[in-house]
Amino acid sequence: MTTFQPETVPGQPPPPDSVPPRDSTVHAPTSVARLNDTIRGFVDRWGSVWVEGEITSWNLRGGNIFGRMKDLTTDATISFRVWSSTAQRLPKDFATGDHVVACVKADYFPRSGDFSFAVSAMRHVGLGDQLERLEQLRTKLRAEGLFDASRKKRLPFLPGLIGLITGENSDAEKDVHRNAELRWPQVRIRTKHAAVQGDRCVPETIAALKALDADPEVAVIVIARGGGDPQTLLGFSDERLLRAVAAASTPVVSAIGHENDHPLLDDVADLRASTPTDAAKRVVPDVSEQRALVAQLRARLSSRLSQRVSHDIAQLEQLRSRPVLRTPDALLTGRAQETWMLVNRGRDILDRRVAADDRRTRELRASLRALSPLATLSRGYAIAHLRDGVIVRDAAQAPAGADVLVTVAQGSFAARSEGPVQESGAAATQGGDN
User: Fold this and answer.
1) Average pLDDT of the residues in 30-36
2) Strand ordering across the sheet containing 411-416
3) What kind of architecture, by CATH, is found in domain 16-125?
4) Domain 130-285 adopts which CATH fold?
5) Is the pLDDT at 332 greater than 80, yes or no?
6) 116-121, long-range: CB < 8 A, 24+ apart
7) pLDDT tens profile 189-220
8) Which of 345, 165, 390 is nearest to 255 (CA)?
């Protein structure tokens, strides 16, 4: 909004009635009339200014029009008056929600202390300008990813509780309730009423959205309106509302009911429905269709189960008709005779092998006994060992005084050598004969 500049002449002091009554004290205060006259004198020196905004109130009383205008991006508002002489020159199609530019001049009423603006001219802002702004916002939000399909949440198959945001006693509310209850009689809907156009549309819709989103029972939220011209639907393209919908944790369905130039809410919402009736059909399943589907699935299951049982019975009969299952004793009887023969054959082979090994063991034992030194010792021979365990094979190995260990057939004993013995020739000969 353009800032007013007081009309002053350089080098000249302001008129006396525009000077604040600075001479007032607690003991000598100024009067209300003087204060109001001072304000009136100051405001009268303001010039006219063109201002752009949205009409949020438009009331005709006695030929004069009293209304309010709202800033397009903030909640700032002003009051304005259109006197009957000016209203006769304006177009007759102005209404609440219109986007306009107006030439206004500040007006202050000393008797009541009211501040307002008098409108001298007003015209609609071109739809092309509005669409250009919407396209700029659309491009901005798309770049941020608010339109991406990947961020959209899936709707539940059968929501336990539906949150509905719509105008009070509106056709949209009746359509959603009627069609939802026709499709699923046990459906539950929690409705939050909000203005669907004008300056209260965006804040009330956001408040209702936050309340329903915070309710853990609400499974899906529907924002519904029964259509309208692009001017009246501007609230559903407001960036504040769009970001609130994008931030909601509950799936949101847009059911504004306007096909052409649809609001940006349709792109940000998780699902777009063409009308409130379509929203009810998309959110709630049809009980008759679900019953038909269940009946169809039951029939298919019964058919598949019957086919499977019949197939398994046929396979079982085929298996039972085989000889091995028809007379299982025949197989056992034949195998029993074969098993008895193999057992006897194995027993005979084992007996023969044991007998042969026994004979071989006796032979080896006899050979070992014949080769054993004990057999020689049992015939009266002895073995002499020196202290270091060396067997004495030559008499010279045991000189006189050498300790000798003598082993005989039944034990060993110690002896001391007296040295080699010289045998006589006769004894040697006799020993050689023995």
Assistant:
1) 77
2) 383-385, 403-408, 411-416
3) Beta Barrel (2.40)
4) Rossmann fold (3.40.50)
5) no
6) 116/78, 116/79, 116/80, 116/81, 117/78, 117/79, 117/80, 117/81, 118/80, 118/81, 118/82, 118/83, 118/86, 119/65, 119/80, 119/81, 119/82, 119/86, 120/48, 120/86, 121/86, 121/90
7) 999 999 988 878 999 999 999 999 999 999 99
8) 165
Contact indicator for 106, 115 with CB cutoff of 8 Å: yes
- Identity of residue 190: R
How far is residue 270's CA from residue 302's CA, in Å, rounded to a whole number?
Answer: 38
Does residue 146 have a pLDDT over 80?
A: yes
- Closest-CA residue to 151 (of 141, 164, 166, 159): 141
The pLDDT > 90 percentage for the chain reads 39
Structural domain boundaries in the chain: 16-125, 130-285, 326-370, 374-420
Decide if pLDDT at 164 tops 70. yes
Strand order in the sheet with 271-272: 189-193, 162-166, 220-224, 252-255, 271-272
State yes or no: pLDDT of 18 exceeds 70.
Answer: no
How far apart are alpha carbons 190 and 161 in whole angstroms? Answer: 7
Rounded Cα gap, residues 183 and 284, in angstroms = 7
Do the domains at 16-125 and 130-285 have one common CATH topology?
no
pLDDT reported for residue 20: 58
Average pLDDT, the chain: 84
DSSP code string of 281-341: HHHS--HHHHHHHHHHHHHHHHHHHHHHHHHHHHHHHHHHTSHHHHSHHHHHHHHHHHHHH
The rounded Cα 190 to chain-centroid distance in angstroms is: 26
Q: Are strands 162-166 and 99-109 parallel, antiparallel or unpaired?
A: unpaired
Residue 320 has pLDDT above 60, yes or no: yes
